[in-house]
């Protein structure tokens, strides 16, 4: 009976090569980095970032993230290196070498790359998914922002739900577009159905009033609760120039009396 030949332990270089061969078959971007320096990136990652591997290897991993995420990512990497903990799945934004940006999911966990203590980051492109979500949100906001004509030159816009930063920006775009061709002289915006009362809402009311003034349309705000007025003061938003009434009914009476 032939004696079995003992297997030779794999060397460091061989282990790295096997690891690279495995990750090359992945469809997702895989990056190995240590102390923020890229040690390895697979071919799908090179194609995703629109750069060859020689350009990416040796680069600072933090630099591929947009400025608003860099501090968060750097802290996340330090924690992973020091505590050897798995980082939870997060959504972030990266910059590619052709100047474009992409929305991604990022998952990180500690690995041993040869003799080097490192982090493996897996990046999944969700740009299309996020665009679809934003388009659906915009459509939802458009549908939930009906401008109701009352009589010639007057309409009512009831705002319902939460008005966060994203929705306030959408409303600032949507409202002027919706009133085009309506021949409005006055628009009543009722805010009694807004859930959140904060600085974002106060700033939105101030800005939409100025936009409508430039378009030659008078705004009357109704349903402003005391806590919103307080938030406006805290945010240093001047509500004194806004025309306000308690209810839509009161605003209609005032408009008809002065018409």
Automatic annotation (TrEMBL):
Domain STAS stretches: 144-255
PROSITE patterns with a match to the protein in the record: STAS (PS50801)
UniProt xrefs under InterPro entries: Bact_StressResp_Reg, PAS, PAS-like_dom_sf, STAS_dom, STAS_dom_sf
Gene3D superfamilies, alphabetized: PAS domain, STAS domain
Domain of life: Bacteria
Pfam family, one: STAS
NCBIfam families to which the protein is assigned, alphabetical: sensory_box
PANTHER family: BLUE-LIGHT PHOTORECEPTOR, RSBT ANTAGONIST PROTEIN RSBS-RELATED
Protein name: PAS domain S-box protein
Species per Swiss-Prot/TrEMBL record: Planococcus notacanthi
Taxonomic lineage: Bacteria, Bacillati, Bacillota, Bacilli, Bacillales
